[in-house]
């Protein structure tokens, strides 16, 4: 396990965890297509080149194609010096795809100094924690939108867990339990944890301060309150204003640090936050 000094050095290099996002970049590898829950605000399109939001990518990659892409980016005089983080954030849930773990192994073999980062809905965190420990995962983002199973049943159409599909309050209970237990275990292992919470006006507003308090107690490092992108089941809901977001972040900053420059990145983002590069993808030999 990394020392506190080593951990802080890596945090300073991670643009999504408080590091210098003006000079440190990240590279997302879109190797995880399958998902095990259906979020009401999510529309996953694997072939979208013109939108910048979570769940979209121009092309899915195999682990072998992903490592070729990493080699190219790291060898470039433009991108090589700025990329500090290799992240897997979809377009599905990384923990629900074995390709995630193989990709991290390949990256670690050739580029051990790059920070390994993953974003997940958290359903499989307790089940996969031994694998994440073995991989040496440094940074973990968990999307946690409610602590109330009833509200969870409104946000998620279904949760597919261990061969069974659940809905309503039962789905919310399973998901919230696994998310909190996974956050606790990850913190015990020394991972740096960011909590993403999508603010859905009229649905989970009251949950924000409860989430911030709970995750801080469990060992999370920072929280990212994100505005709803109106689509899918929540296409009819108006997103929160910038003023509303700023106020919520300020209120909850008293409890846990707030990440304020999120651009709700694509699953294949490369470069500095807000300045993504469009790169051609080579195929593996």
TrEMBL record:
Every Radical SAM core domain range: 21-266
PROSITE patterns: RADICAL_SAM (PS51918)
One Pfam family here: Radical_SAM
SMART domains registered for this protein in UniProt: Elp3
Keywords: 4Fe-4S, Iron, Iron-sulfur, Lyase, Metal-binding
InterPro entries in the cross-refs: Elp3/MiaA/NifB-like_rSAM, rSAM
Cofactor entry: [4Fe-4S] cluster
Function, in words: Involved in the biosynthesis of the iron-molybdenum cofactor (FeMo-co or M-cluster) found in the dinitrogenase enzyme of the nitrogenase complex in nitrogen-fixing microorganisms. NifB catalyzes the crucial step of radical SAM-dependent carbide insertion that occurs concomitant with the insertion of a 9th sulfur and the rearrangement/coupling of two [4Fe-4S] clusters into a [8Fe-9S-C] cluster, the precursor to the M-cluster.
Record-given protein name: FeMo cofactor biosynthesis protein NifB
Lineage of the organism: Bacteria, Pseudomonadati, Thermodesulfobacteriota, Desulfuromonadia, Geobacterales
């Amino acid at each position: 396990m990394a020392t506190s000094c080593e951990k802080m050095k890596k945090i300073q290099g991670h643009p999504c965890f408080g590091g210098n996002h003006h000079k440190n970049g990240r590279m997302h590898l879109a190797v995880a297509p399958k998902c095990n829950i259906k979020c009401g605000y999510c529309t996953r399109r694997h072939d979208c080149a013109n939108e910048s939001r979570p769940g979209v990518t121009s092309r899915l990659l195999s682990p072998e194609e992903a490592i070729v892409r990493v080699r190219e980016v790291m060898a470039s005089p433009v991108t090589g010096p700025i990329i500090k983080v290799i992240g897997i954030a979809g377009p599905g849930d990384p923990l629900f795809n074995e390709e995630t773990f193989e990709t991290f192994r390949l990256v670690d073999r050739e580029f051990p100094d790059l920070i390994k980062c993953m974003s997940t809905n958290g359903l499989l965190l307790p089940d996969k924690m031994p694998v994440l420990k073995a991989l040496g995962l440094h940074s973990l983002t968990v999307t946690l939108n409610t602590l109330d199973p009833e509200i969870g049943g409104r946000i998620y159409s279904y949760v597919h867990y261990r061969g069974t599909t659940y809905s309503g309050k039962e789905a919310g209970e399973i998901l919230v339990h696994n998310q909190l237990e996974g956050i606790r275990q990850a913190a015990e292992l020394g991972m740096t944890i960011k909590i993403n919470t999508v603010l859905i006006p009229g649905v989970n507003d009251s949950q924000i301060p409860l989430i911030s308090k709970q995750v801080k107690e469990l060992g999370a490092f920072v929280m990212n309150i994100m505005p709803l992108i109106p689509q899918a089941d929540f296409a009819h809901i108006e997103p929160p204003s910038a003023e509303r977001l700023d106020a919520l972040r300020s209120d909850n900053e008293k409890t846990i640090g707030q990440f304020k420059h999120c651009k709700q990145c694509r699953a294949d983002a490369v470069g500095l936050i807000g300045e993504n590069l469009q790169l051609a993808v080579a195929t593996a030999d």
